[in-house]
Amino acid sequence: MPAPRAPSAAPGAAGAGSQIAAPGGRRGLDAPGGRRPRGAGRQVLRWTNLALLVLFPVSWVAPLARAGLLPLFGLDEISVLTGIRALWGEDRALAALVALLAVAAPAAKTAWLALIHFGALGPRGLPVLGALSKLAMADVFLVAVYIVLARGVGVGRVETAWGLWLFTACVLVSMAVTHLTRAAAWTR
């Protein structure tokens, strides 16, 4: 006699690979690759984001590149903040725009994520997070344009420095934390 079969789970029932309803009507998977972060996963996101609150300011003062007119002379180190300061003397509107996109937007996005992670905002903070993410992604573009322009001049020499790697890593990690937070429809 065949063994009795267990009744099949109703649609939406919790179980390996089943879909669960998240707040706001979003659906997520509780299977690997789509599961909502719980316990240790949430803690990793929280602490990674808090580390970004320290690492972003370090990346703003770290040398992004070394630039000089002739190879015989020393190269000047350029950071995000020294670049903004140099722009301030030439074009204040552009300096303010760069400061907004490369400093203020990533800082605001990281702080906003911390508020979501620690339950001060919950999922209702996600729409603002999307807008901040779009602004904060512009900093990668600005750094790339700067290096391309500086190398395209052909008169001087530009070398990338460790701060560019740190700044890029901060941006990429921030993008990953943001994606995982939004995918999880973060709740308390």
UniProtKB/TrEMBL annotation:
Residue span of region Disordered: 1-37
InterPro entries: PqiA-like (IPR007498)
Parts of the chain that traverse the membrane: 50-73, 93-116, 128-149, 161-180
Annotated coiled-coil segments of the chain: none
Segments of skewed composition (Low complexity): 1-34
Keywords of the record: Membrane, Transmembrane, Transmembrane helix
Taxonomy, superkingdom: Bacteria
Keyword RNA-binding: no
Protein name: Paraquat-inducible membrane protein A
